[in-house]
Amino acid sequence: MFQYAAASGIRNGDEAIYADLHALFGKGGKSAGYLLHQFPALRFPKVPNLVHRIFNHGDFPWPLLRTLLRGRFLRATQRGSAMIPRLQQRKRSVYLDGPFQNPAYFEKLRPRLLRDFAFPEPEGDEAMLAAAMGSRKDAVAVSIYRGTGGEAPGPAGPSLKYYEECVEALRSGSGQPHFYIFTNDTGWARQLPLYDESESTVIGPEISGLRAMQLKSCCAHHITAGNADDWWAAWLSQRNGQCFIPSEWYGEAPESTRIQDLATPGWTVKAAH
After folding, report:
1. Under-50 pLDDT residues of the chain
2. Hey, CA dihedral for 128, 129, 130, 132, is it positive or negative?
3. Would you say residue 174 lies in a domain?
């Protein structure tokens, strides 16, 4: 999503955006998973095989072709959140390689991206849950996941102290927050100090990916776990509530991603540990 949003921000006029999906398909042509195709409004062409090979293959003759065509094509590689300057002023077609995790690329495109990233209509129990979240003035999406090896929450995200401080900040306000806790272990989540049965709803791993992102975006406030799905859930929410983000990034390219680049105006950065 970051890469598509960045491409939208740097493209010139009606310049086309292509998706290189080759890495997602095995020899049998079956997809290994692709988030963007789940958004009904997003339909764009796949990169032709020739272009994919020019940019990605190391055997002859592709390196030679890259050299001969460098006046027409630019490969922009980014491994974290640092901006690549002057991409919009380029005169060549550009191939984006990397996460491009910086909202500065698309800060002026919010109305358009809200349309592009419009979620499909929820159904059944999820529709009821989305309606309940939307009707609560102080609905809070909390993403907290039990880490590997039984640690809590361990390597999967920030410390319990981070969550406790965020919850306390919301409880001390003038509203009456209800916490929707998204987790990979519901039993463990109900044992946490921040859990209160009267003001909490626990949502397990059966709701994940785009469906979880959609539900989180229905909430007014967000306590994120420092990953791309949580970031987008908060950014796509149109309720203008509080958003907390940990001081460390637990998504793609954590070693080269600065939280200062990702924390949009109005969001609160809290110590991860």
Report:
1. 26-32, 148-150, 153-155
2. positive
3. yes
Q: Distance (Å, rounded) from C-alpha 186 to C-alpha 188?
A: 5
Q: Tally Cβ neighbours within 10 Å of residue 149.
A: 8
Give the DSSP letter string of 63-126: HHHHHHTTTTEEEEE-SSS---TTSTT-SSEEEEES----GGGTTT-HHHHHHHTPPPPP-HHH
Shared-domain flag, residues 139 and 255: yes
Q: Are residues 98 and 131 in the same domain?
A: no
| Number of domains the chain contains | 2
pTM reported for the whole predicted model: 0.90
Closest C-alpha among 247, 244, 242 to residue 272: 247
Please list, in sequence order, all residues whose beta carbon lies within 8 angstroms of the beta carbon of residue 92, skipping any fewer than 6 positions away.
71, 72, 73, 74
CA distance between the termini of the chain: 28
pLDDT in the model for residue 53: 87
Indicate whether 46 and 180 sit together in one domain.
Answer: no
31: helix, strand or coil: strand
Domain that holds residue 74: 2-110
Q: Can you read off the two tokens belonging to residue 109?
A: 């495109």
Last residue of a domain, one of 55, 87, 110: 110
Last residue of a domain, one of 59, 86, 110: 110
Task: For 75, list phi and psi in degrees, rounded to 5.
Answer: -100, 115
- Which pLDDT score is estimated for 107? 92
Q: Give Cα separations from 271 to 81, 147, 268 (angstroms).
A: 19, 18, 10
Structure tokens at 130: 């989305």
Mean pLDDT, rounded, of the chain: 88
